[in-house]
Amino acid sequence: MFAALRAFLLCLAAVSSSHAAPWSTFVQHSTHSARSLPNGLTLKTYHPKSTFEVYERGVPHPLSGRAEKASFTDAGMAFLHSKLGDGMSLRSGFESSHASHVYAVQKINDIPVANAVTNVVMNTKGDVVSFSSNFVKLNSFAPVPSSPKLSKEDAVAAAVQQLEGRHLGEEPELAYLALEDGKMALTHSVRLELRHDGHWVDAYVDAETGDVVGMVDYTTELSMRVVPISRADPTDGFQLLSDSDIVDPKASPSGWTTFQGENKHATIGNNIVAFKANLTAAVLPASDPATDTFDAEFDPTTDPTTDTNVAAAFAQAFYAANTAHDILYRYGWTESAFNFQQDGTGGTNGDPVLLSVQDVTDFNNANFVTLAEVDGKPGLMRMFLFNVTTPFRDGDMVNGVVLHEYAHGLTNRLTGGGNAKCLQTIESGGLGEGWSDAFADWVAQTANGGHVANFITGEWLNPTGHGIRDFPYSHSRAVNPYTYSTVKQFNEVHKIGQIWAQVLHIVHGALVQTLGSADDALTNPDAENGHTVFLHLMIDALSIQPCNPTFPDARLAWIQADQNRYDGKNRCNLWLAFAYMGLGVDAADFVDSHKVPEGCPLQYAAPA
Ligand SMILES: [Zn+2]
Any idea which positions bind Zn(2+) (predicted)? Predict the structure, then answer.
């Protein structure tokens, strides 16, 4: 399967380069972006034209002759130097089994040129197969300023005033900007949120004149007709949501449909690449590429594999998986914590989640492949149809199922420091299923606010009243009777997982009862309420617990996580909830313990 995926990634690269051709005839389109500003003016930003060369079977690079094989980054940089001279530095690189990629940025006086990048691709033999560059040749008649006249503070003030923006607090950085007239402006790059449309931008303020001479807009307009994340499935209804409703600009600053710096107008982006088995027609283009609108009307009365329903499935799964990325990013699962992203700062690049919509390899399930290599390899999420109803129903259409799958990437990468080998036993595999259900449960509760209500996994896919698990997750023992000791009855990870998810449902309820609820907990991890505390502790505990943890280990990791983050403030509250579920102090070998540590005298009381 992974060979096919690697081919798919290559196929993506091919798609992106062929895009350049038809547009290049529109001179302004290929070299300018334009943004209308609140004062009625239009700011045009110049992007130097790229050269692009392909070498089919490949050509050698300058280090090819060496006895010892050079690293792909050394080889790529040597080739780029041979084409462009000095004056650049490595920006990023990644390797797949079919190709390796190296990106560099132009530098003058050791300051990067913001709009000048180059890249080289090498095949598995190490030969160079393509090269592109939009590096700028310096005009000897136009001197390049080497130090700024304007201070950083003045640059921020100028950008805020000229663009009617709000400074986001990040320190401005020096950057050159190549201008259309061949001059090179030394600028302060200032990150702002524009007041009139909420877009996040980098404004380039000329460090001599104080004028804004260019802007990069990180916000792409995107509209998707989907079941909102606060709802479960198609029976709850669809809404056409716009960019500002769905994309978190902090977690996804270049939006959801930008891949390697280019808006794909399709279900391809930095976090998620959604595709269907036929790899040559793998991704769904926007129904209206001009506005990046995905607007398929799902019809539950017909087969899920009709063209329109497939389009709806693409949109729903892409939306829910990106939402999972953005939420978890806010809560600290960033590039440097081994998350899944094509590009980013820190960590290794080149690992978005590849999401196989309506995957045909199975039914009545979904799965997630995390490779053992720490970072830099894509995750693979496969969503299946469910064949228990007529017509069949599609796991892609159920938010909880998509969130569940995405959370496997989280738990596999964080347990054991990203090696993806530490949830292999039946018990720890069961915990893995449990966290995934618990994350879906958490998103539903948190999106709806208030106290923690019953939650059913996959109700629409298997309309039994308890979905695809034995019982709803509930504070009522009459609704869900499972406790820790139930684990010994089962020998299958989803069966075991539902017990851990029920434990965490109780923990979540206890935290919300004590610390209250908050409307903004999906995107604001800084407050202290039951929702935010729950997700922080769940994520923190993953990195604390041992490889292949047991239920009592996982519980102890929560207690320690609370000590680390909140100075043990929730210790008794957590112990009471765990003890209620049989995971008290003496819990071991699937024998319930309801004992809490000394000094925790309270009785657990289930929320009304
Ligand atoms: Zn699962």
Answer: 221, 404, 408, 433
Can you read off the two tokens belonging to residue 531? 């929702």
391 cis-preceded (ω within 30 degrees of 0): yes
pLDDT in tens, 183-222: 889 999 999 888 876 677 889 999 999 999 988 776 667 8
505 is in an annotated binding site: no
Q: Identify the active-site residue in 95, 335, 405, 459.
A: 405
For residue 353, list its beta bridge partners.
272, 379
pLDDT tens by residue, 414-463: 887 766 678 888 999 999 999 999 999 999 999 998 889 999 999 999 99
Positive or negative torsion for Cα 204, 207, 210, 211: negative
Q: Which residue has the higher pLDDT, 464 or 350?
A: 464
CA of 273 to the centre of ligand 1 (A): 20
pLDDT at residue 264 in the model: 83
Whether 404 has a binding-site annotation, put simply, is yes
**Residue 361: band (very low, low, confident or very high) from pLDDT cuts 50, 70, 90:** confident
Å from CA of 220 to ligand 1 middle: 32
Helix, coil or strand: residue 35? strand
How close is the Cα of 17 to the center of ligand 1, in Å? 36
326 near 251, Cβ under 8 Å? yes
Q: Which residue segments constitute the domains of the chain, with CATH numbers given?
A: 2-133 (no CATH), 152-217 (3.10.450.40), 221-333+352-392 (3.10.170.10), 422-608 (1.10.390.10)
Q: How far does the centroid of ligand 1 lie from the alpha carbon of residue 317, in Å?
A: 15
Active site residue 492: no
Longest dimension (CA), the chain: 83
Can you give the three-state secondary structure of 367-390, one letter per residue?
EEECCCCCCCCCEEEEECEECCCC
Phi-psi sector, 241: left (phi>0), alpha (psi -120 to 50), beta: beta
**% of the chain residues with pLDDT over 70:** 87
User: How far is Cα 257 from Cα 269, in angstroms, rounded to an integer?
Assistant: 4
- 433 known member of a binding site: yes
Q: What is the distance between the alpha carbons of residues 422 and 557, in angstroms, rounded to a whole number?
A: 15
Two structure tokens written together for 167: 């400074």
Residue type, position 63, single letter: L
> Please, how many CA atoms are within 13 Å of residue 286, restricted to the half-sphere of its CB?
20
Residue 234 CA to ligand 1 center (angstroms) comes to 21
Decide: residue 453, CB within 10 A, 0-12 exposed, 13-18 middle, 19+ buried. Answer: middle
For 377-426, how does the pLDDT look when each residue is reduced to its tens digit (9 = 90+)? 788 899 999 999 999 999 999 999 999 999 999 999 888 776 667 888 89
